[in-house]
């Protein structure tokens, strides 16, 4: 069993010692040229270098090379100015959002970053409208207006207090109009940005970042250069940490590797940071399937599934059972699936089916992807199959596909039940409900729910104080629980493994769990 308490003590102790000793002048964040760049390993490889095409793991790279109007300085949980000097709604209805840019901003090629560049960057997302791209984030945007060189006004077609969060996503990265066409994606393996780093070189297995000297934004870079290495699996990343070819590893560490690193960290020169995360895993039911479309079948599955067993047996307690679509730690989180179903019960599930006139064994095919959410996905679905079949109520067939063809399959409605994961676009409950409901949603599986889409979400988006929208999100989650169209399974935690020579790992992840490379540095002494 994973010893989370020891991992958490290690992280807390490390953070405290770092702060104390750095204050005494023994540790310094000044980088040393002869030590070379900090080398970071991850399985989160970008699929594109153009922000207009990306609603995926490409954001990890974008955050460090491009600049957005708003972003998240270390420790911030709400968007703060980055390329902007200031931003805010200028009306009481949350429909007009104005930003003033910092003076003298320049792209890495020397071109001026002005209000026209911001307008160009946002407008081209909708014009190009890449399938699976970020245009869906801009559903409330009516038009962008550039006023002079430094003012940008966003006119919304409806109240949307979450719009600042949207502007803080790397999808809204600011690009040079002379380098990024208005109606087409940019080609090639280079980037022109204005973020903390410039892209020195790029290949499918490595990105070399160097500090951008003219950057003007929130980031305090504590190193001069970072090399990001992209891996397919966890094991070679861990080997790289142990042989010294990697300084840091994050996103993609397998459960077994995390457990091993946790056990060994006191006896090696490695450290493991364990922090809360908002990644979730869930099942989606296709309403057009003759079996998955039956409410009683979905509720019976919800009654049988043992999330605790999945978290413990498959993920070694590196994830936590999840009982609502909104994860723990966000305003509006509930435990409705536990409140309604309680502990797993075959007897209750059997009664649900019998009351609906279903007495035969229910045949279902569960689909999962082989190369998106980690090597444990197969074991997770094998555990789900075992739980459902051991109840005597279901006959389960498992099928899988690589991600690219998997997406096409669920968008075409081919799967009765399929697994998905979700990393948030921004840390708000809205982003764990809105993408999954409505006729057109991120799942490609229509889920018309007018109470949520027509009333609760619009009302909540009109409220700038997010603490005041708890009741709306609670109601929305109860509706999702009643419908059982989506079945939350677990909530992930965030793990960063690093050499003992590296500091900053505990502060490096922003609220969307994207790593800010500038927070990493080598410990040096005077």
From TrEMBL:
<feature type="signal peptide">
    <location>
        <begin position="1"/>
        <end position="22"/>
    </location>
</feature>
<dbReference type="GO" id="GO:1904680">
    <property type="term" value="F:peptide transmembrane transporter activity"/>
</dbReference>
<keyword id="KW-0732">Signal</keyword>
<dbReference type="InterPro" id="IPR039424">
    <property type="entry name" value="SBP_5"/>
</dbReference>
<dbReference type="GO" id="GO:0015833">
    <property type="term" value="P:peptide transport"/>
</dbReference>
<dbReference type="Pfam" id="PF00496">
    <property type="entry name" value="SBP_bac_5"/>
</dbReference>
<dbReference type="GO" id="GO:0042597">
    <property type="term" value="C:periplasmic space"/>
</dbReference>
<comment type="similarity">
    <text>Belongs to the bacterial solute-binding protein 5 family.</text>
</comment>
<keyword id="KW-0813">Transport</keyword>
<dbReference type="GO" id="GO:0030313">
    <property type="term" value="C:cell envelope"/>
</dbReference>
<dbReference type="InterPro" id="IPR030678">
    <property type="entry name" value="Peptide/Ni-bd"/>
</dbReference>
<feature type="domain" description="Solute-binding protein family 5">
    <location>
        <begin position="78"/>
        <end position="441"/>
    </location>
</feature>
<dbReference type="GO" id="GO:0043190">
    <property type="term" value="C:ATP-binding cassette (ABC) transporter complex"/>
</dbReference>
<dbReference type="InterPro" id="IPR000914">
    <property type="entry name" value="SBP_5_dom"/>
</dbReference>
<protein>
    <submittedName>
        <fullName>Peptide-binding protein</fullName>
    </submittedName>
</protein>
């Amino acid at each position: 069993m994973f010893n989370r308490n020891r991992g958490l003590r290690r992280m807390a102790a490390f953070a405290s010692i770092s702060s104390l000793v750095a204050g005494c002048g023994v540790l310094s964040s000044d980088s040393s040229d002869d030590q070379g760049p900090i080398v970071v390993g991850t399985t989160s490889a970008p699929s594109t270098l153009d922000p207009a095409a990306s609603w995926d793991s490409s954001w990890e790279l974008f955050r460090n090379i491009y600049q957005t109007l708003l972003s998240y300085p270390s420790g911030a949980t709400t968007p703060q100015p980055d390329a902007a000097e200031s931003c805010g709604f200028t009306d009481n209805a949350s429909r007009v959002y104005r930003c003033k840019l910092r003076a003298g901003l320049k792209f890495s090629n020397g071109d001026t970053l002005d209000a026209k560049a911001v307008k160009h960057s946002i407008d081209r997302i909708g014009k190009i409208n890449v399938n699976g791209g970020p245009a869906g984030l801009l559903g409330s945007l009516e038009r962008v207006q550039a006023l002079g060189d430094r003012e940008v006004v966003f006119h919304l077609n409806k109240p949307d207090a979450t719009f600042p969060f949207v502007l803080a996503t790397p999808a809204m990265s600011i690009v040079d109009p002379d380098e990024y066409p208005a109606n087409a994606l940019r080609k090639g393996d280079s980037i022109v940005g204005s973020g903390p780093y410039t892209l020195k070189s790029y290949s499918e297995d490595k990105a070399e970042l160097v500090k951008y000297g003219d950057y003007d934004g929130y980031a305090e870079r504590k190193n001069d250069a970072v090399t990001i290495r992209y891996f397919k699996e966890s094991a070679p990343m861990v080997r790289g940490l142990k042989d010294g070819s990697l300084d840091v590893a994050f996103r993609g560490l397998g459960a077994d590797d995390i457990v091993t690193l946790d056990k060994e960290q006191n006896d090696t020169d490695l450290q493991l940071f364990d922090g809360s995360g908002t990644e979730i895993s869930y099942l989606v039911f296709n309403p057009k399937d003759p079996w998955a479309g039956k409410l009683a079948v979905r509720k019976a599955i919800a009654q049988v599934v043992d999330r605790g067993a999945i978290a413990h047996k498959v993920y070694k307690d590196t994830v936590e059972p999840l009982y609502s679509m909104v994860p723990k730690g966000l305003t509006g989180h509930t435990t409705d699936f536990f409140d309604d179903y309680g502990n797993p019960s075959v007897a209750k599930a059997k009664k649900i089916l019998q009351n609906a006139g279903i007495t035969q064994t229910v045949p279902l095919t569960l689909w999962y992807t082989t190369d998106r959410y980690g090597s444990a996905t197969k074991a997770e679905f094998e555990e789900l199959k075992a739980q459902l079949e051991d109840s005597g109520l279901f006959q389960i067939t498992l099928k899988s596909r690589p991600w690219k063809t998997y997406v096409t399959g669920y968008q075409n409605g081919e799967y009765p039940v399929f697994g998905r994961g979700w990393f948030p676009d921004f840390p708000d409950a809205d982003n764990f409900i809105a993408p999954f409901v409505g006729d057109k949603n991120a799942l490609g599986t229509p889920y018309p729910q007018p109470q949520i889409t027509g009333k609760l979400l619009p009302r909540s988006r009109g409220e700038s104080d997010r603490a005041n929208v708890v009741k709306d999100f609670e109601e929305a989650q109860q509706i999702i629980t009643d419908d059982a169209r989506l079945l939350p399974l677990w909530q992930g935690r965030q793990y960063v493994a690093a050499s003992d020579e590296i500091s900053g790992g505990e502060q490096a992840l922003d609220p969307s769990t994207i790593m800010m490379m500038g927070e990493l540095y080598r410990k040096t002494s005077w």
